[in-house]
Specification:
The protein is α/β, with parallel strands linked by helices and about 800 residues long. β18 and β19 (about 360-370) form a beta hairpin. The relative contact order is 0.10. Residues about 1-5 and about 10-30 have low confidence and may be disordered.
């Protein structure tokens, strides 16, 4: 999460907000079919109508006139040429269609996504088929290894890495590979080395560090691979087996009478000297897992939140002269329960203290039960505090009252637990996370593969890759961690493929690669992965993919059940395609399934052929499928399906102050609204873009992104074309007539998603045909079967 000078929220003046119908208000009024926005170029709609009605001569002439009209903008030229090609196909004149596509593909002034469509159709000789393999990562074929080392627990006498005397740890195998390289003049033998890791539990106490000397080559890779049919599990925790009833009468008296006899304790001192970390600090916080399920740090209330009362801090302020708050943490509470916590040694409060898109844990300095006030300890929350904000309390022994809750007494190294219903402590696998550093770090390494390994039960991250090139993490399962799963920082062409990442305290992947100064691509990819139930501890700004840099790709993944965004995108020329994103932004506000923020030079990002569904969260502002926040401009949103997206003030796509975005050929189905806008106006736009003006004028940027020549003019103007809005409550929200819109259509009838992949079926549907709608490879969205694919988590 970046620190911003101004609050990052949907800025809707209070009076205007009252005039905008909320979902509840809309339900009270008679529901009228929404109308499409007025066309910015009616002649193009008329030409498409000729085609739909079979008036092919009239369609050809109308499209041809528009394609050659010097007064028409580039997007009209490209759509007219696409119309010419479709008209030619309707005449069974494939050569004329190919000629039209060639004309479109060769014109650098036309929208890139339309040129890509033309190239795709040319490649298939006019046929609408699409080869799925062209949209999938090229995974290397591993050569037959020159040497194999085995790793297996428990340790055998005199291990030598053979199958009969395997090494006990990956570190032993790494050192054996280093010795082998030295005997071959610093190189791996042709075919490389395979380290076969046998099934079992490997308790990890330190990081496996791989450096440049551990690199392989394309012909001789170094592969750490699970042995066939086996599941090696690397655990960063310690098992707890000696559970007993709570014995101290004073402690028993603090517990609710209904659970006193079921609460258990375990003495952790026999486990040896262990740093018990912090109750809420990210990547330092120990967690208790029972049969792989994270237990809940004792909290109040048991579910949901309560609201802050009057703020009492002395350093007061107002946002927009309307929203009062204070910088120092002191506020009233209205419930009776906090008055019982005076003997709790380390109370933490988790909350959305000022904005519902920014969360923090706070330490309680004191409680005044007479005045019903909390006084918090510095450091205070980044944005301050205000009344009626959501919070709950954690790390409270007295609140150990619900099955599945636990508490750690750090002073006495004792742990307390109320087992879940139906769980017998003597038979359950209970593990406390201890490892607070990554399991594996690759530093400036090339051609190393981690394949089929499982990492779990640690406080921090699983894998870090820094620098280097062509490393791959595939078919791995990463779960039950307090941090992120995989972090890639720099380097070239690293991949995360076919992994399952679930039950994580923070996000799943953070990937940064490429150079924004030179616009050189990183070529990293995240593909064919399943990510679910993450951001358990850090609830916001901890997405499934945080992508940064230039020229990276996220494709064919499933992201689901996340309290905030599924993707956070920063940088240039990224490709986000063929992902399935559902049930995200379940708790935070002012977010999207994908979120971009704050830089009008983040250009060249293409978001295409994704399915966004059931994204309807938010509190004050809402939740969108795609959220283009503060000045994000020049983004292409093409061929997506938005299903049941948008809430409060947001549509399926929300654009906040940006321009030059192209929203093209998408289907919005059963959405609260199709698109929503937060217009900035010329004055605010010109002030905000000043820090970026110098870079915008650099020849590299101005050549790559010709629209930057018009950066200072026409703020808030975006292009919205060929979209279908089916059974949406609204089409546009707050557009102010600023958008350039053409070939959009609405209907109150459902659209069968099964027809989207067939051009013949699309053409046979008058609604889609009239929008010059393109096929969407709906059946190919999401993960696909592959030998290097980890099993999905148990649903």
């Amino acid at each position: 999460m970046k620190t911003h000078r101004f609050p990052r929220v949907c800025i809707i003046p209070p009076l205007l907000a009252l005039l905008i119908a909320s979902p509840a208000r809309a339900a009270q009024a008679p529901k009228a079919p929404p109308t499409p926005p007025p066309s910015s170029w009616p002649a193009l709609d008329q030409a498409a109508d000729h085609l739909t009605q079979g008036r092919l001569d009239a369609a050809r002439d109308a499209f041809d006139n528009l394609a050659n009209d010097p007064a028409a903008p580039p997007f009209v030229h490209s759509l007219a040429i696409l119309g010419l090609a479709e008209t030619a196909l309707a005449r069974n004149d494939t050569p004329s269609a190919v000629a039209a596509w060639q004309r479109l593909a060769a014109d650098p002034d036309l929208p890139q996504t339309h040129r890509d469509t033309a190239r795709r159709r040319i490649a298939h000789k006019g046929l609408p088929q699409r080869d799925p393999a062209q949209y999938r990562a090229q995974i290397p074929t591993l050569p037959q290894p020159a040497a194999i080392f085995h790793v297996a627990p428990p340790a055998s006498p005199d291990p030598d890495g053979s199958e009969s005397k395997p090494f006990p740890t990956l570190r032993h195998a790494r050192d054996a590979v280093r010795a082998l390289k030295k005997s071959h003049a610093g190189n791996l033998p042709n075919g490389g080395v395979r380290i076969l890791v046998h099934g079992g539990i490997y308790t990890v106490q330190d990081t496996l560090s791989l450096a440049t000397e551990d690199s392989g080559t394309a012909q001789s890779p170094l592969v750490y691979e699970a042995d066939a049919g086996q599941t090696p599990i690397f655990s960063g925790g310690v098992r707890i087996t000696a559970w007993n009833p709570v014995s101290d009468p004073k402690l028993r008296d603090k517990l609710d009478p209904s659970i006193r006899d079921r609460a258990l304790q375990a003495d952790l001192k026999p486990l040896g000297p262990i740093d018990w970390g912090d109750a809420t600090a990210i990547r330092l916080r120990p967690e208790l897992f029972c049969n792989g399920v994270p237990q809940t740090l004792a909290r109040w209330p048991n579910e949901g939140f309560v609201k802050t009362g009057q703020v009492l801090g002395k350093e007061t302020f107002k946002v927009w002269d309307t929203i009062p708050g204070c910088k120092d943490g002191k506020f009233q509470y209205s419930e009776d329960r906090p008055g019982l916590w005076l003997d709790e040694p380390d109370i933490r409060l988790y909350g959305y203290w000022f904005w519902d898109w920014f969360d923090e844990y706070q330490k309680v300095a004191s409680i005044d039960p007479a005045a019903r006030t909390f006084t918090l300890a510095p450091p205070y929350s980044n944005y301050g505090y205000r009344k009626d904000q959501r919070y709950h309390a954690v790390n409270l022994f007295r609140e150990l009252d619900r099955p599945g809750e636990w508490y750690l007494d750090r002073r006495n190294a004792m742990i307390y637990w109320l087992p879940p219903e139906g769980v017998e402590s003597t038979k359950a696998a209970t593990t406390l996370s201890v490892l607070a550093k990554p399991f594996v770090v690759l530093e400036n390494v090339q051609h190393v593969v981690l394949l089929g390994l499982t990492f779990q039960e640690a406080r921090g991250d699983a894998i870090h890759i820094r620098g280097g090139a062509d490393c791959l993490v595939a078919r791995c399962t990463i779960r039950q961690l307090g941090g992120d799963a995989i972090v890639i920082a720099g380097g070239q062409h690293h991949g995360i493929f076919g992994c399952t990442m679930t039950s994580l305290g923070c996000g799943a992947t953070r990937v940064a690669g490429g150079d924004r100064k030179t616009l050189s691509p990183g070529n990293h990819f995240v593909e064919n992965c399943t990510v679910s139930d993450i951001s358990r501890i850090k609830r916001t700004y901890a997405p499934a993919v945080h992508l940064d840099g230039c020229g990276n790709r996220v494709a064919h993944n499933l992201f689901q059940r996340i309290p905030s965004s599924a993707l956070r995108i920063e940088g240039n020329d990224h490709l986000i395609e063929l992902n399935r994103v559902r049930r995200v932004v379940q708790e935070s506000d002012d977010q999207g399934g994908i979120d971009m923020f704050g830089n009008p030079l983040y250009r060249g990002v293409v978001i295409r052929f994704n399915h966004w569904s059931d994204i309807r969260g938010g509190t004050e502002c809402g939740a969108a499928g795609i959220r283009l926040d503060d000045m994000i401009s020049g983004i292409t949103v093409h061929g997506n399906v938005f299903q049941r997206c948008g809430a409060v003030l947001f549509g399926g796509v929300q654009i906040h102050g940006g321009k030059d975005n192209l929203v093209d050929a998408n289907l919005f189905l059963d959405c609260y609204a199709g698109l929503s806008f937060s217009r900035w106006g010329e004055k605010r736009w010109l002030q905000a873009i000043q820090p970026f003006a110098q870079d915008a004028a650099r020849p590299l940027y101005s050549t790559r992104y010709p629209q930057l020549a018009r950066l200072i003019i026409e703020p808030d103007v975006n292009v919205v074309t060929r979209n279908v809005f089916a059974r949406c409550d609204s089409v546009f929200l707050r557009d102010g007539g600023k958008e350039r819109s053409v070939l959009n259509t609405t209907t109150q009838q459902p659209v069968d998603l099964d027809i989207l992949a067939s051009q013949d079926a699309v053409n046979a549907n008058p609604l889609l045909r009239s929008a010059l709608f393109e096929t969407i490879p709906f059946d190919d969205i999401g993960p696909y079967a592959h030998p290097w694919q980890a099993p999905p988590p148990n649903e």
